[in-house]
Amino acid sequence: MTGDTSLGKTPLGRARGLGSAGEGAEHWGLERASAAATLALLVWLAVSLLRLPALDHQTLSDWLKAPLAAVPMLLLVVAMFWHLKMGLVVIVEDYVHEEGRRILWLALINFAAIFAGALALFSVLKIALGGDVAG
Amino acid sequence: MHRNPNRPLAPHLGVWKWGPHMLVSILHRVTGAGLAIVGAGLFTWWLAAAASGPDAYETFTGWATWPWALVVWIGLTWALFQHALSGLRHLVMDIGAGYELGANRFWAAMTILFALLLTAAFWAYIIFWRLA
Q1: What structural domains does chain A harbor?
Q2: ipTM attached to this prediction
Q3: What is the mean pLDDT of chain B?
Q4: Does B53 or B17 have the greater pLDDT score?
């Protein structure tokens, strides 16, 4: 491996693909990209909800049927759950040292984040595509 | 862990002098974990209840407007402001800026101050302008 220049010439280029997990730079970059997307979309959500006349079921459902409400909401769910999954993984990697327990926690985080994220995505899609909700 | 208890431990948490930068680092993780578990949990409940129909949504809003739930909402908004501001500070530090001791401590303290101010301003707006 010594003298192999295929790893790249810049410091970042050399760092890519290295580290104990072999993918540290990607995790690092995605954590920040998902953070920026989550922040921007949460500001959008807060402003949108404050602009609604009320937050009852009918008003919320009608609002979520608009493409420009449903699509940012879907993107928010993806960015936010991706970001929180990565953040919780880093915490476990830092503090849970015993191999078995670490694997258990990482599995739990992944299953929980994917389940909750899928539930949120399906809920948005159901409201957005569901036609008129009774009541 | 296969650690020999007779060997000395490297000085770890005990040797650090407390300062705003240390506090903000810890707060970033604590608020992040809180938002991930409580915040995202309530967010998912809200959406799933809305998708399940008016009755399920009523159950959610019934809980959400319970007076003691306000403690959770205010806590979550503070956690979000703190995590967002210390996160923005991390983005600045990622480009290599703000590591001088004075600047580092100053901006760490500012994230704490502004997170509290933004939380107060947000709830003052909700309570005195929107609900009044």
Answers
A1: 5-129 (1.20.1300.10)
A2: 0.88
A3: 92
A4: B53
Name the token pair of A44: 């959008």
Which alpha helices (DSSP H) does chain A contain, by range?
Answer: 11-15, 24-51, 57-64, 67-95, 99-129
Give me the domains of chain B, ranges plus CATH numbers: 20-130 (1.20.1300.10)
Rounded to whole angstroms, the Cα distance separating A135 from B16 reads: 59
Structure tokens that stand for A42 in this block: 């949460």
Distance CA B36, CA B30 (A): 10
pTM of the model: 0.86
* Cβ within 8 Å of A, B 32-71: 32-33, 35-36, 40-41, 43-44, 47-48, 50-51, 53-54, 57-58, 61
Beta strands in B31-127 (DSSP E): none
